[in-house]
Write a structure and sequence with these properties.
Layout lengths: L5 H4 L5 E3 L24 E4 L9 E10 L2 E9 L17 E7 L7 E8 L6 E3 L5 E5 L2 E10 L4 E8 L7 E2 L13 E4 L5 E5 L34 E5 L12 E3 L1 E2 L17 E8 L2 E7 L6 E6 L6 E8 L10 E5 L2 E8 L10 E7 L13 E2 L2
Parallel strand pairs: 16-20
Antiparallel strand pairs: 1-2, 2-24, 3-4, 4-5, 5-6, 7-9, 8-9, 9-10, 10-11, 12-13, 13-14, 14-15, 17-18, 18-19, 19-20, 21-22, 22-23
This protein binds beta-L-arabinofuranose.
InterPro entries: Glyco_hydro_43, Glyco_hydro_beta-prop_sf, Glycosyl_Hydrlase_43_Enz
Family: Belongs to the glycosyl hydrolase 43 family.
Keywords: Carbohydrate metabolism, Glycosidase, Hydrolase, Polysaccharide degradation, Signal, Xylan degradation
Length: 369
């Protein structure tokens, strides 16, 4: 097992010194007694990691037969230096978590799928999601193919915790990262997906992957931002039933969010849930580190920007899911509490609350005295 070193676990006590944070600068070296920097503020995390035996991120939670299953990425301590395209996220397999109730003991299941089992995949098994139809469970996952292009694969199992058997080819017409699968009340299932920068959405604007395309986005701040994608799945859940469409997010004037609006525009980490008959599309703003959401009347949108769900966590990324359990709503997310390193994350859960008008109360991942 990839157990975090004791040195790092020392950072996981309830109250942590800011020195454990990757966003705090180190204390000034060699300051004399009367030049000591001010005492560092202490920070208290809102919630604690669900598991510490391995590093986990990107938690997609589902409730099946009364039990909670979490499908996370499995972070590993690789050797690739950090870069803006996420080359340091070198994940190779998936392990699933389960629990009978939130707050109860968490079971860490054995490897459910390894990159070596997937004929088309080369590396970087990033954020997955799962679905169930009849008696089959489906694991959806992005990975880079042998040409360095992200594609989305699917694997099946008769058990929610695997092992999963991958299809020999990625989903036809799939590209980019972060699949999130939502089944509506009418039984139709949709996949939301995509991510800019390392997620390569900007290199897939013509229908063919352009390895020499922009490293970041469209590089047009005054134009509509790149959108997440949505496609209905076929009845067997294995392919797209249609060409992916744009998930358009509108501002307060019903205009699409612009590429320069980094506090609100889509970056990665799509999730869809339904509340009181409305469709809530939520996502990460990436370089501004927020989890935000937009509300629509159809699974295809358009969606109107509605606010922040989660303020920035410790670490560069976070990625979430939202589920209802016994009438209460829960936000699963991740931070870097255990390691202090962005590449080695840990998943968490906290309760999510709505206002009477259907907006979501913003969550601060830290508790302030
Ligand atoms: O875990 C790798 C990538 O980082 C995910 O696919 C993104 O959502 C971000 O969390």
């Amino acid at each position: 097992m990839n157990r975090p070193p004791l040195r790092l676990l020392a950072c996981s006590v309830l109250v942590v010194l800011a020195a454990c944070s990757s966003k705090e600068p180190p204390a000034a070296a060699g300051a004399s007694a009367d030049q000591q920097p001010p005492a560092k503020a202490t920070r208290q995390y809102l919630s604690q990691p669900l598991v510490s035996e391995i590093y986990t991120a990107d938690p997609s939670a589902h409730i099946w037969d009364g039990k909670i299953y979490v499908y996370p990425s499995h972070d590993i301590d690789g050797t690739t230096p950090e870069d803006d395209l996420g080359a340091h996220f070198e994940m190779r397999d998936y392990r699933i978590l389960s629990m009978d109730e939130i707050g109860g003991p968490v079971t860490l299941h054995p490897v459910a799928l390894d990159v070596s089992q997937v004929p088309w995949a080369d590396k970087q098994m990033w954020a997955p999601d799962a679905a169930r139809k009849n008696d089959t469970y489906f694991l959806y996952f992005p990975a880079k193919d042998k040409q360095g292009a992200f594609r989305i694969g699917v694997a099946t199992s008769k058990s929610p915790t695997g092992p999963f058997e991958p299809r020999p080819e990625p989903i036809k017409g799939s590209f980019s990262i972060d699949p999130a699968v939502f089944t509506d009340a009418d039984g139709r299932t949709y996949m939301y997906f995509g991510g800019i920068w390392g997620g390569q959405l900007q290199r897939n604007t013509t229908g063919t992957y352009d390895p020499n395309g922009s490293k970041t986005d469209l590089q047009a701040d005054d134009q509509p931002a790149l959108s997440a994608k949505v496609a209905m799945l076929t009845g067997d859940m294995l392919e797209f039933a249609e060409k992916p469409r744009d998930v358009v997010i509108l501002d307060e004037n019903d205009k699409p969010l612009l590429g320069g609006d980094h506090d609100r525009r889509f970056f990665e980490a799509s999730w869809m849930h339904k509340y009181n008959g409305k469709y809530y599309f939520s996502y990460s703003t990436g370089d501004t580190h927020y989890i935000v959401y937009a509300i629509g009347d159809s699974p295809y949108g358009p969606f109107k920007y509605a606010g922040r769900i989660l303020e920035p966590v410790e670490g560069w990324t976070t990625h979430h899911s939202i589920v209802e359990s016994d009438g209460r709503w829960w936000l699963f997310y991740a931070d870097s509490q255990l390691s202090g390193q962005t590449r080695l994350r840990n998943v968490k859960v906290t309760e999510l609350f709505y206002n009477p008008d259907g907006t979501i109360k913003t969550i601060d991942p830290f508790v302030h005295e």
